[in-house]
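Reviewer has doubts. Consider these tokens.
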Amino acid sequence: MPDFMSPGSKEREIPEALHPEKGDIILDKPTASIFIGTNFEYMMRNRGIMTLIFTGIATEIGIESSARDASNRGFYPVVVSDCVSSVDKDAHERSLKNLDKIVIVKSSAEISKSAE
């Protein structure tokens, strides 16, 4: 398991600027997909949420796995292309190209503009 995923590692800590507020829900994500080993799907379905917006690190691992899983489970995944990243630029770019064939991949500016 990479250091940034290892329980108790400094890399896994939530930065102070993004620290959860009272009432926020924090899920421990033990696999590449947010759907495996968590109650995430039930939480979204119970709230009637069908559109899932994906941001984060390791585009070719966690983002791609979770977005594909979301699509396979009947959700509408949206990957925010300028809000995902990877230490492997080539893998990141390939992943975005692959995802663009099966889910919505848009920049934050495109998403903000369409919300107006």
Summary: The chain has a mean pLDDT of 91. Strands lie at 51-57, 76-85, 104-106. The helical segments are 40-46, 59-72, 89-99, 108-115. The chain has four helices and three strands.
